[in-house]
Amino acid sequence: MQLVGNRYEFEGGITPQQLVEKYDCPLYVYECSVIKNQFLRMRNAFSLEKLKINYACKALNNVNILKYMKQLGAGLDTVSIQEVRLGLLAGFDPSEIIYTPNCVSLEEISLAVKYGVRINIDNLSILEQFGHEYPDYPVCIRINPHIMAGGNSKISVGHIDSKFGISFHQTPHIHRIVKANNMKIEGIHMHTGSDILDIDVFLQGAEILFQIAKEFRDLEYMDFGSGFKVPYKEEDIETDIEELGEKITARFRDFCTEYGRELTLMFEPGKFLVSQAGTFLVRVNVIKQTTSTVFAGVDSGLNHLIRPMLYDAYHKIVNVSKTEGRSRIYTVVGYICETDTFGVNRKLTEISEGDILAFYNAGAYCMTMASNYNSRYRPAEVMIYEGKDYLIRRRENFDDLLQTQVLCPVLDEVPAEH
Q1: C-alpha triplet 171, 172, 175: angle, nearest 5°
Q2: Mean pLDDT value across residues 11-40
Q3: Beta-sheet pairing, 294-298 with 278-289
C-alpha cells in the first residue's frame, strides 16, 4: 500500500476505504504483486541453475497464497503434517514439499512418508527410529551450527541451547545411525534465526554446512534456511540479498566443484516473501485521554496481531482516513482484556473515532498466529491479484466459535434437590 497524492492505494488503485466498505473491519489485505517482486528479487540474486526457493508457509498459510506461490515456481517448506496437507491441496507435488518438524512423534513423521514428501529430521532419537522403520526412505538432516543470530531471542534457533537441529559436534553419532540402518541422506539443512542482517552469519553457517556435507557422498541438495531481514520503518536497514546472493553463489559453486557434482541450493524464505505484501486495516473505536497518554483504541487486539506483544515487533501505523492535517501523538491499543499495545507514542495524523488505521508488514506471522481469545472472531482476508480484490477467508461468526465444542447432555438435566 502506498500514498498516491492525498490518498492511500493498493495495487490497481484500490483504496483501503473501498475494501473496508466491501468487507468490513478488521481486515487483512495481501498484494500479490509485492510477493512476486520479492520472489523474483531473491531468485535473481542467486545466479544458479539448480536453485529452489521453498516458501515457509508458517508465515502465511492461506491456501490461495500457497497456490500463488506455486504459480511463481516456489516449492514449500512445512513444519506440520497439516501444512503438508495444505500444500498438497494447493497443488504442490510431494517432491516440491519439504517437511521440517520439531519435537513431533514418529507417528506424525510416518504420515509424511505416506504422503511422499521430503523429510528433514532434526534430532538423533527420531533419526534412529526413522532409520529402523524406513531405511530406504531418503531424508535430510537439520544441523545446529551453534550460531546465535536473529532479531530476537525467541526467533534465534541455531544457538547451542536451541531445541532445533542436531549439533554439528554430534555428526559422528549421525554417521553411526546412518551406517547401522543403511540410510540415504539426500540433503543437509540449517536455519539460524529470523531478522538476520549480518551476511557473515550466513557465510559462517555455510562453511560449517559445507564441511559436514563433504562427509555425505549422496547429497542432492543443501538447504540454507532463511531469516532475511525486511524493513519495518522508514529508511530501515534490511538484508542485502543481492550481496548475499553474489557471495553464496560463488562459494557454493566452488563447493560443488570440490564435491564432484552440482547440487541444488535451497532456501526457505517466509517473511522475506510475504511480510511487506500484507496490510492490516482496523477501525478506531475510541479516543481516550489520560493524564499522560492519548489512546487510540481499535477494533482488534493481540488476538489478531500478536507480534508487537510477543516479540516487541514494530509495525508502521498510518491513519488512512486522513492523509493531511495536524499530527498528534497516540498510543494505539486493542480491545482485548490484556495489555495489547500495538504502538507507543506514534505521531499520526489527528485521529477521530471511526477512522481507519493501517498496519504495515502484516503479511508474515500475523493472521497465522491469530486466535479467538476473549471469544473474538478472527478477521477476513483479501488478496489483491492483478488489480482486483478477492475474498480468500470470510470473517468468523458466533457459530464458528461453537463449531468444535460438544455440549455435555448431563448439564442440561434438571439438578436433583439437595
Answers
A1: 85
A2: 97
A3: antiparallel
Q: Is 134 exposed, middle or buried (0-12, 13-18, 19+ CB in 10 A)?
A: middle
Q: Is the pLDDT of residue 194 over 60?
A: no
Eight-class DSSP state of 143: E
CATH class of 2-29+276-402: mainly beta
Cβ contact 296:357 at 8 Å: yes
Selecting among 25, 32, 103, 337, the annotated active-site residue is 337
Closest CA to 331 of 308, 354, 310: 308
| Tens-place pLDDT, residues 302-327 | 999 999 999 899 999 999 999 999 99
392-416 as b/e: b if 16+ CB within 10 A: bbebbeeeeeeeeeeeeeeeeeeee
> Residue ranges per domain, the chain?
2-29+276-402, 31-274
CA–CA gap between residue 251 and residue 200 (Å, rounded): 13
Burial class (CB in 10 A: 0-12, 13-18, 19+), 139: buried
pLDDT of residue 219: 96
The angle subtended at Cα 190 by Cα 369 and Cα 101, nearest 5°, is: 45
Smallest CA-to-CA distance from 216 within 254, 189, 242 is with: 189
For the 31-274 domain, the top CATH level (class) is alpha beta
Find cell 507480534 and name the residue.
307
Residue 337 falls in the annotated catalytic set: yes
- pLDDT at position 418 over 60: no
Hunting for cell 531469516 — which residue is that? 227
Each residue of 95-105: pLDDT tens digit?
999 999 998 99
pLDDT tens-place string over residues 360-395: 999 999 999 999 999 999 999 999 999 999 999 999
- 337-375: b or e for each residue (b if 16 or more CB lie within 10 Å)? eeebebbeebebbebeeebbbbbbbbbbbbbebbeeeee
Task: List, for residues 113-146, the tens digit of each pLDDT value.
Answer: 999 999 999 999 999 999 999 999 999 999 988 7
Q: Do domains 2-29+276-402 and 31-274 have the same CATH topology?
A: no
